[in-house]
Amino acid sequence: MQKKTILVTGASGFVGSHFIKNYSNEYNLIAISLKETSIEQLQLDGVDTVLHLAGISQQSKSINSEKYREVNAKMTEKLALKCR
Length: 84
Description:
Blueprint: E1 5-9, H1 14-23, E2 28-32, E3 49-52, H2 65-83
Parallel strand pairs: 1-2, 1-3
């Protein structure tokens, strides 16, 4: 049986890095940094699942509320629309 391909955003973060480490043998994983790649640039052909783990944690006190909303809400909505 062919491995499923999963595109993972936030792969360098706490949850993402653990996911990559634990599941790299079971799936074809594509790690994407949304800091370096825009959502418009994403190529989803051949991707079975998108696992969106990118975001700013509430522990990031130095981040203003607009940046927090931009990354955690607006970027997530934009990604969901792209996946649709």
